[in-house]
Amino acid sequence: MKIFAVVPLASLAIAAALALAASAQPPPVASAPPKPKPSCFWASRIENFAAVDQQNLYLRVGVKDVYRATLFADCLDLEWVHHLAMVTPGSSVICEGANQNATVIVRATGIGRQHCPVTSIQKLTPDEVAALPKLARP
């Protein structure tokens, strides 16, 4: 006597679907586009500067690049000084972004040397540079 196992057709279909699903590759996950690298410059490449207030300093770096340095607090006489220094501990490379270790040093009238911490650096686009008031262009 032979015994035949009767397997319902639905069971075969489910088994085949599970086997196919197990061997299938998951769909590719869309990854976020890479973040652009921050623009950096050497402090020694600062050619000129301009300030229209005591917290925003515009720096001309090289021939065509302009950066805005936002200072932590008012830097007295910033818009009147003719010389300043920008220093960083350990390296003289300054990159755009927040939480900078850069410090602007100016000689304020009646106070002497003043250290003004930089909180952020932003490279301006050519359109942003063109939109600056004449006195803010370095």
The 3D shape can be described as: globular
Rg from alpha-carbon coordinates: 31 Å
| Main sheet summary | 7 strands, antiparallel
Weakly predicted, low-confidence segments: none
Distance between the termini: 101 Å
- What do the pLDDT scores average to? 80
Structurally, the number of domains stands at 1
The beta-strand count equals 9
How would you explain this protein's 3D organization?
The chain has 138 residues and is an alpha+beta fold. It has one domain. The chain is 15% helix and 35% strand. It has helices spanning 9-23, 126-131, and strands spanning 40-42, 46-51, 56-61, 65-71, 85-87, 93-95, 97-98, 103-108, 112-123. The strands form two sheets. Strands 2, 3, 4, 5, 7, 8 and 9 form a seven-stranded antiparallel sheet that branches. A two-stranded antiparallel sheet has the order 1-6. The longest helix has 15 residues, at 9-23. The protein is globular, with a radius of gyration of 31 Å. It starts with 8 loop residues before the first helix and ends in a 7-residue tail after the last helix.
Label this structure with key terms.
138 residues; 15% helix; two-stranded antiparallel sheet
SSE topology:
Elements: H1 9-23, E1 40-42, E2 46-51, E3 56-61, E4 65-71, E5 85-87, E6 93-95, E7 97-98, E8 103-108, E9 112-123, H2 126-131
Antiparallel strand pairs: 1-6, 2-3, 3-4, 4-9, 5-8, 7-9, 8-9
